[in-house]
C-alpha cells in the first residue's frame, strides 16, 4: 500500500494543485488545466503521467464520464494532513466573529446558538453545535436553608437556567448557624463545577479543609447530582444552522445525495454520535467521506472540535459540507471561533472560576 512517504515533491505539488482546483470548480481536473493554471514548469504529458501514478496509488479517481481526475478520500486526507496551505481569516471576518460573540450573551444556550450561527455564516456550510450533556451542566449557585434540626432545603441553579429545590432529611442534628456556614462553603467550592466533578475526592477536600461532616457532605452532593440528572436524561441539545447553504454546491444537483443529507440531519442521536471529535480536547477533527462510516453521507465531510470551560470540555461544534469543502478556511474559522467561544465562556462563568 502506498503512503505519503512514497510521494515525491512533484507528485505532492500536482496532488495539491488538483485538489485546490477541484474544491473551487467541482469539475474533474485534467492534466492540461494543471499544467497551465499552476505553472509547475512541466508539460501536460508529464502531468498526465504523474496523475496516472497518483490514481494508481489511490490518491485520485477518474469518473467514467470524464478524462479528468477527482480526489479520493485518501487524497483529501493527505491534503488535510500534509499539503494544504493555512488560510487566515480576513480582518472583517475576525471583527464580525468578535462582535457577534463578545459580552452580549448571558446564558450558555444562547451563546452556543450564536456560535453555531457564526460558524455557518463564515464557512457557508451547515454548522452543528451540541449543548453540554446534563452531567456537563455547570453549577452557578447552591444554597442551603435551615428548616428544622433535621431538615434542610437545597436550592440549586445551573448554567442551563435550571432551578431545582429539594428537602434533605438529615441523620444528625444541625443548627441554623451551621447550615449558613456550610452553605457559604459549598457555594464557594461548587461554583463552576459540573456534576462529573462532584466526587469523593472533592468531599474529602472540603471535609479536610473545613471540618464539615463527611456524611453530611455526601448527602448534599448526591442530592445535587440527582437534582440535575432528573432534569434531563443526558441527551445533548443540537443547534443547527445553514442547512440551506448546501444548495449552493453542485453536489446537491443529485437529488439522492440531497435527500440523504436532509434525512441525516433529522437524526439527532446520530449527529450527537459522529460530531464528537476523535482528537483530544480542543483539537480540530476532520472526518472525510467514508471515514464517517455512514453510507448515506459518504459524500460529505465533518470538521469538529470541542469547546471548554478552562481545561474541561463541555460541548462540541462542527461543520458539515461536501468532501470538497474549503478545508483551510473551515479549519481556521473553527479554531478562531472556538477560541473566542472559550473566552466568552470564561467571562460568563468568570466569577465562579476565579
Give a verbal description of the structure:
The chain has 354 residues and is an alpha+beta fold. The chain folds into three domains: 4-83, Winged helix-like DNA-binding domain superfamily/Winged helix DNA-binding domain (Arc Repressor Mutant, subunit A), CATH 1.10.10; 91-131 and 237-353, GAF domain (Beta-Lactamase), CATH 3.30.450.40; 136-231, Heat-inducible transcription repressor hrca homolog, domain 3 (Enolase-like, domain 1), CATH 3.30.390. It is built from twelve helices and ten strands. The model has no long low-confidence stretch (mean pLDDT 83). The radius of gyration is 26 Å and the shape is elongated. Helix content is 45%, strand content 18%. Helix 1 (9-25) packs across helix 3 and helix 1 (9-25) crosses helix 4 (73-83). Strand 9 (300-309) and strand 10 (312-322) form a beta hairpin. A five-stranded antiparallel sheet has the order 7-3-10-9-8, sandwiched between helices. The protein has helices at 9-25, 31-37, 44-56, 73-83, 91-101, 108-123, 176-190, 200-210, 214-231, 255-264, 268-274, 327-348; strands at 60-61, 70-71, 126-130, 139-148, 151-158, 163-169, 238-241, 285-288, 300-309, 312-322. The longest helix is centred in the C-terminal third of the chain and has 22 residues, at 327-348.
